[in-house]
From TrEMBL:
Lineage: Eukaryota, Viridiplantae, Streptophyta, Embryophyta, Tracheophyta
Catalysed reactions, as listed in the record: campesterol + reduced [NADPH--hemoprotein reductase] + O2 = (22S)-22-hydroxycampesterol + oxidized [NADPH--hemoprotein reductase] + H2O + H(+)
Pathway in which the depicted protein is active: Plant hormone biosynthesis; brassinosteroid biosynthesis; Hormone biosynthesis; Steroid biosynthesis
A Pfam family of this chain: p450
Species: Sphenostylis stenocarpa
Protein name: Cytochrome P450 724B1
Gene Ontology, cellular component aspect: membrane
Keyword Iron: yes
Length: 472
């Protein structure tokens, strides 16, 4: 009897075990609640050091290459002090960017919050983001067609190019490009000319302001972080002073369109703090990014003689249709088709912005995986740009690939979704006008080996020194 009971018990527990196993496996298939594979790296430190390690910006870098081949295009890690999911999957990246408002809002490191301030368009969310962004969008979409803006850009291109001392025959191009883009922004936003005394004060403080974004938040005199916070205080005071002056002037003679300041002063739903923040955000957004794009183009064209020749021909054609010294206009810009290919290719290949910061506020399902609420999500924009399944020879700078309609359009250098870069069209126009005068007046050679590096934002550590020769 005891033996019979033992047999029944064994059979019963065996059946129960099989049932349990089946249930567990089934429920796993029905509710796949697993994290993407990956490694969390060192305790506390995670893998941030490896993730930020510099590499050529027209490559993915060894960290991403190794992680993608070991774990796949979406993997877990521990970055910037938080558990994180890194995505090198173009489709998932687009999903992340499109769902910024509800599921995956921006989540920049704390150091940026302290420097940019609580009204920064780049950081704010919800209704405040909608309000500030709509002001920027209406300003940018109106001015890109304005003759006054085209004239101002061209005048600043010429003043930069004409300042080059042809005797020394050498320029540090990255610095020149930065001067040009900050001058455009200062004129366009605040009606400040390059030689106004306030211009050099803004420039000086702005360099320190920007350096703070990639610093450690140690607020003691001498640190980059401390200098950035001080620079923000000074910049705020300068811009507030300009606002007070402009209000007085507009009171006497009401403003008619013009720069950003007039546009924001005409809105009665913006506080002075929000106005200052908008000006700083646009100066920040439009300064280094566009200068990096210009420098990338000059760098890549230095090794692409066929593309440079075609670019030159396009601009010579435009000149032939114009009178001597006649300024460029919107119609000319629309004729610059190959120039657009060069810009697209430099953006794809050079990756001005490598990745963006987001955070899951709810559990997010991706294929068989779940990204838990509270985790950081970092869409890597460069991964799609350099994906050999999307682009043939992806590491090669080849603007001609954009002539071909079958070329993948899966690029996102300006981000996507509700935070798509509002300055994209301005950046392209400034770049095209600069290239017009550069290729018509100069040929250049890059001195030494100074490739664009992802640090993680693109940098030319040697300043991109060029040997210049006027084409005569
Ligand atoms: C080649 C030049 C540029 C590149 C590559 C670039 C890239 C980007 C990217 C990737 C974003 C999205 C950030 C995110 O989703 O978190 C962005 C946002 C932004 N950009 Fe640009 N940008 C460029 C030029 C400009 C210019 C010229 C301006 C100003 C006139 C500007 C102003 C901004 C602002 C204010 C935002 C924040 C938008 C928001 O959060 O709603 N950018 N940019």
């Amino acid at each position: 009897m005891v033996e019979l009971l033992a047999v029944i018990l064994t059979l019963f527990s065996g059946l129960a075990f099989v049932y349990l196993l089946k249930y567990v496996t089934k429920s796993k298939q029905d509710f796949p609640q697993k994290l993407p594979p990956g490694s969390m790296g060192w305790p506390f430190l995670g893998e941030t050091h490896g993730f930020l390690k510099s590499h050529r910006s027209n490559s993915l870098g060894s960290f991403l290459q190794e992680h993608c081949s070991r774990y796949g295009k979406v993997f877990k890690s521990h970055l910037f002090g938080s558990p994180a999911i890194v995505s090198c999957d173009f489709e998932f990246n687009m999903y992340v960017l499109q769902n910024e408002r509800k599921l995956l809002p921006v989540d920049y490191p704390k150091v940026m919050h302290n420097i940019l301030g609580k009204f920064s368009l780049i950081l704010v969310k919800g209704d405040l983001h909608r309000k500030l962004r709509s002001t920027v969008i209406s300003f940018v979409s109106a001015t890109k067609y304005e003759t006054q803006f085209h004239r101002c850009v061209e005048m600043l291109v010429l003043s930069r190019i004409n300042s080059w001392d042809t005797n020394s025959k050498q320029v540090a191009f990255y610095k020149e490009a930065k001067r040009f883009t900050i001058n455009v922004m200062m004129k366009h936003l605040l009606d400040i000319n390059p030689y106004d005394t306030v211009a050099s004060k803004i420039l000086e403080n702005f360099e320190n302001y920007i350096k703070g974004f990639i610093s450690l938040p140690i607020n003691i005199p001498g640190t980059a972080y401390f200098k950035a916070l001080q620079a923000r205080i000074r910049l705020t005071a300068i811009i507030k002073g300009i606002i007070v002056e402009r209000r007085k002037c507009n009171h006497v003679r009401p403003a008619q369109g013009g720069d950003l300041l007039n546009v924001i002063l005409s809105k009665d739903n913006l506080s002075t703090e929000e106005m200052v923040s908008l000006v700083l955000d646009l100066l920040f957004g439009g300064y280094e990014t566009t200068a990096k794009l210009l420098s990338l183009i000059v760098y890549f064209l230095g090794g692409a003689s066929n593309a440079l020749q075609r670019l030159k021909e396009e601009h010579q054609e435009i000149r032939k249709r114009k009178k001597e010294g006649e300024p460029l206009n919107w119609d000319d810009y629309k004729q610059m088709e190959f120039t657009q290919n060069v810009i697209n290719e430099a953006m794809r290949c050079g990756n001005v912005v490598k990745f963006l910061h987001r955070k899951a506020v709810e559990d997010v399902k991706f294929k068989d995986y779940v990204i838990p609420a509270g985790w950081k999500v970092l869409p890597v924009l460069s991964s799609g740009h350099l994906d050999p399944t999307l682009f043939e020879n992806p590491l090669e700078f080849d603007p001609f690939r954009w002539d071909d309609n079958s070329t993948s359009k899966q690029v996102a250098p300006f981000g996507g979704g509700p935070r798509f870069c509002p300055g994209a069209d301005l950046a392209k126009l400034e770049t095209a006008f600069f290239l017009h005068h550069l290729v018509l007046n100069y040929r250049w050679k890059i001195k030494g080996d100074d490739p664009p590096l992802a640090l993680p934002y693109v940098e030319f550590t040697g300043g991109l020194l060029l040997d210049l020769e006027p084409t005569g």
